[in-house]
Amino acid sequence: MTSEAVKALTRQYVMNTYGRFPVALDHGEGATLYDPEGRAYIDFTSGIGVTALGYGNRLWAEAVADQAGKLGHVSNLFYTEPPARLAELLCKRTGESAVFFANGGGEANEGMIKLARKYSFDKYGQGRSTIVTLENSFHGRTITTLKATGQDVFHNYFFPFTEGFRYAPANDLEALKDQDQGDVCAVMVELVQGEGGVLPLDKAYVKALEALCAGKDWLLLVDEVQTGVGRTGTLFAFQQYGILPDAVSFAKGIAGGLPMSGILANEKCKDVLGPGMHATTFGGNPVCAAAGLVVQEILSDEFLRQVREKGEYLRRGIEALNLPCFGKTRGLGLMIGIEVREGWTNKEIAAKLIENGLLVLTAGPGMRLLPPLVITKEEMDRGLAIMKKVLA
């Protein structure tokens, strides 16, 4: 099908819930995508942080095909090898103790919220169920995770929302303490606020927050849906902050492009959700888990070191362009935010770049770049050249 035919069919039969850019994509290689007519696009988005291994990775494709030919799905009422092996790898590489597999980031965060409230109920009974999140956070699109999101713009239309959330400004421990009314069970944070504008939390604040939670027996929940699986240059961002959360959600890049997510829990929390307490039909799907094993195989310590180097290279390259519309860059690894100066809008900039062959994202009032972790220096240079040509 041509690009126009794909777009027309989508407009006719798919619900119009996305503000799509006028590009149809057909195939890709590395960090470069192509439309049906063969036009190339440098990808600084990786499917919003999902396609960590880029496009056309043979190891990944062969693992998916081999597992699909053996066993596609049987449910979690039986045992299968791929999710067990993936869970083992994740625990050994993080210091956490157990994994629950799900399908998407919102579902993982919802499960983590349930875990926190169950932990508190088991130990303290009713009345201790409030979870404090941070202003400018984003935790998902379900009714509950929308309410957990610390942005008023999301608290509309879908009333009534789930109760039991309060919000505090980021990097302000005293303001967070003020949210304690004797009913708090957990604090949930993104270590880099992604949708809010790619805003890393202060490391001293995170360490103090860990100590506060430990002292009050609040669970420290870390939402790594976007920051996890190598995106920030370590397997999980919390490893750069020197903490071990009680529970960590993950999704996005975990299966390199297939729908998978989950929760990592520490020793204290690993048995909180027993049989019948939580479930999901497709969670731990063996095909997705087989893909996840390839991702873990590739994300070696040396590979992650290169991700950190690539992030520094790309940030320095953007700042060296000295573009009139861009201010400072920020972020960790290949999770990069760019300040947009007054007089410009991020949507206007994104549209111009995409029109000229560079796929980018927005976040808050700024730009957000999430390239495939396998992106090459040559592909980054091509992307920088497009920025210079279009925005200078």
Quick overview:
The chain is an alpha/beta fold and 392 residues long.
Question: What this model shows, in words?
Answer:
With 392 residues, the protein is α/β, with parallel strands linked by helices. The protein is built from 13 helices and 17 strands. It has helices at residues 3-13, 46-49, 58-70, 81-94, 105-124, 143-148, 173-177, 203-216, 238-241, 286-298, 301-321, 346-355, 377-391; strands at residues 27-29, 32-34, 40-43, 98-102, 130-134, 165-168, 184-189, 192-193, 199-200, 219-224, 247-250, 261-265, 326-332, 335-340, 358-359, 361-363, 366-369. The strands form 4 sheets. It has a 7-stranded mixed sheet, with helices on both faces. A 4-stranded mixed sheet has the order 1-2-3-15. Strands 13-14-17-16 form a 4-stranded antiparallel sheet, with helices on one face. α9 (238-241) links the parallel β10 (219-224) and β11 (247-250). α4 (81-94) runs parallel beside α10. The chain starts with a helix and ends with a helix. The model has no long low-confidence stretch (mean pLDDT 98).
Biggest sheet character? 7 strands, mixed
Kindly estimate the percentage of residues that lie in beta strands according to DSSP.
15-25%
- Euclidean distance between termini CA atoms: 35 Å
**C-alpha Rg (nearest Å):** 21 Å
Count of DSSP helices? 13
Question: What is the 3D form?
Answer: globular
Give the spatial strand order of the biggest sheet: 4-12-11-10-7-5-6
> How would you spell out the order of helices and strands?
HEEEHHHEHEHEHEEEHEHEEHHEEHEEEH
Helix content estimate: 25-40%
Strand count: 17
Which structural category do the helix and sheet elements fall into? Answer: alpha/beta
Integer average pLDDT: 98
Segments where pLDDT lies below 50 for 5+ residues?
A: none
